[in-house]
Amino acid sequence: MVLPNSEGTSAPRLYAHIVGWGMAVPEKILRNQDLEAIVETSDEWIRTRTGIRERRIAGERESTASLGLKAARKALDVADLFPSEIDLIIVATSTPENIFPSTASLIQNWLGASRAGAFDLSAACSGFVYGVDMAAQAIRSGSIKAALVIGAETMSRVLDWQDRGTCILFGDGAGAVVLKSSTVEGGVLSSVLRSDGSGGDLLGIPTVGSEDLDNPDFFTNGHKMHKMYMNGGEVFKFATRVIGESIEEALVKAGLTIEDLSLIVPHQANQRIIQAAARALKVDVDIFVVNLDRYGNTSAASIPIALCEAVQADRMRPNDYIAFTGFGGGLTWASMIVQWTDLKSAETRTGVLSNQRRRQISYWVVRWRSQLRRLSKSLNQFLQRINPRRGRIMRLRDKVDQL
Ligand code: ACO
After folding, report:
1. What gap in Å lies between CA 80 and CA 59, rounded to an integer?
2. Strand 321-328 to 332-339 pairing
3. How far is the CA of 27 from the centre of ligand 1 (A)?
4. Which of 129, 135, 343, 389 would you call most buried, defined as having the most Cβ atoms within 10 angstroms of its Cβ?
């Protein structure tokens, strides 16, 4: 389809396609039985109430950004794009490395994505769908050509390990997708993004800005600072209501019906929530991708991780219509319809293997350049202290910065 552009001439319509995907989970597994030693619970209770059997827990040297980076590199390999070809990096997370700099900026630097803008997106477990929508809008408008959207979490670091109502549910991990502009029809077709802030007190993590000096409980409502709290029952009712409603709305926007859907990739919170959604939509529960038994609820990372596993299991065919649906803190919820397209066959690119090697070399160069820059900055500071005449030093720093 050809639409008139701002100059009145005709420009081909642009579509945002998912052309790369990748996931990363920590090696350490925490089984339900292991939790029995931490809080008063049982494998049987957790399995029957949630469907979860085990979850992954980040090691000491792993973080939201390091998991996100691994997933992003894999997604770039599948997309066969270089970091320098990425225009925008969005990291959906509730467990960022810092309030700022953003986790997205850390990943941008580690990847060497020198032409990309980067920011974190806070919409709890709906964050990944929000992020894909933001990236797809920017691509369809023609303002960018390629984007990396990452859902990454280290929930284990914000859990209250004395609260059995939450600590048994969550796990750590990351998933990423690359979106790319194309004139081939398909890709992200529609989205529904919603929020109901009046339910903000149902789940959250109080942090900077929560403290009232005269009354420390005022903003945190008595919840522990930096620790997650949740009213599970109320969130359960909210989730079962909004999944069906928002998927149906996204289908209408895309001009489709539930019969057209081949697969639903839902946020992985609870097997019973997914069963209730299947009943509400009057579909077989097998249409849902479910892997929460192995990873628990990884918040913003759960949808891209499930998507990766669905691709690996060969559950997607070209032109299939699939739905993403997420819900969580905010309250927020979001659904999206995507037409899965094999863009690689539509726009042939060659040399994938040698490009992979070139990407690995570029990551190595970026790492050393970053270390060198840091070193030169420390050296500069040191020399400044012992010699305030800075001419020669500045020249050295400029040379390193140009590398
Ligand atoms: N082990 C054993 N017993 C437990 C545990 C546990 N881990 N947790 C709670 N119980 C007990 C309760 O104390 C209660 O006991 P009581 O009847 O004597 O008072 C009983 O089990 C039932 O508790 P409920 O909270 O009613 O259990 P429910 O069936 O609702 O399941 C759960 C709780 C799993 C948390 C469920 O409500 C749920 O999954 N909610 C949705 C969570 C969710 O989807 N979150 C997504 C958003 S997350 C985000 O955005 C970051």
Report:
1. 29
2. antiparallel
3. 27
4. 129
Ligand 1 centroid vs 59 CA: distance in angstroms?
A: 27
Percent of the chain whose pLDDT exceeds 70 = 89
Q: What is the mean pLDDT of residues 113-139?
A: 98
C-alpha 255: how far from chain center: 27
SS3 187: strand
- Please answer whether residues 170 and 176 qualify as being in contact, where contact means their C-beta atoms are separated by less than 8 angstroms: no
Residue 29: strand pairing partners = 56
Give the distance (Å) from ligand 1 centre to CA of residue 86. 41
- The closest residue, in CA terms, to atom 13 on ligand 1 is 165
Q: List Cβ neighbours of 382 (8 Å cut-off, separation of 6 or more).
A: none
> Number of C-alpha atoms within 13 angstroms, CB side, residue 397?
16
User: Among the atoms of ligand 1, which is closest to the Cα of residue 166?
Assistant: 35
- Which residues participate in catalysis according to the annotation? 125, 267, 297
CATH number of 10-343: 3.40.47.10
Mutate-to-test residue for ligand 1 from 34, 40, 46, 49, highest number of ligand atoms within 8 A of CB = 49
Mean pLDDT of the chain: 91
What are the phi and psi torsion angles at 17 (to 5°)? Answer: -105, 145
**Minimal-distance CA residue to ligand 1 atom 43:** 269
Q: What pLDDT does 323 receive?
A: 98
Residue whose Cα lies nearest atom 30 of ligand 1: it is: 233
34/301 Cα distance (integer angstroms): 23
Q: Is the bond leading into 101 cis (omega within 30 degrees of zero)?
A: yes
Of 157, 56, 70, give the one whose Cα is nearest residue 363.
70
pLDDT digits (tens, 9 = 90+) for 209-228: 776 545 555 556 678 888 99
CA 265 to chain CA mean position, Å = 14
Q: What is the pLDDT of residues 314-350, one digit of tens each?
A: 999 999 999 999 999 999 999 999 999 877 665 545 5
CA of 304 to the centre of ligand 1 (A): 25
CA 158 to centroid of ligand 1, rounded, Å: 18
Give CA separation, 301 vs 22, 34, 128, 142, 156, in Å: 11, 23, 7, 27, 13
- Listed by start position, the domains of the chain span 10-343, 352-401
Residue 396 pLDDT: 60
| Eight-class DSSP state of 85 | G
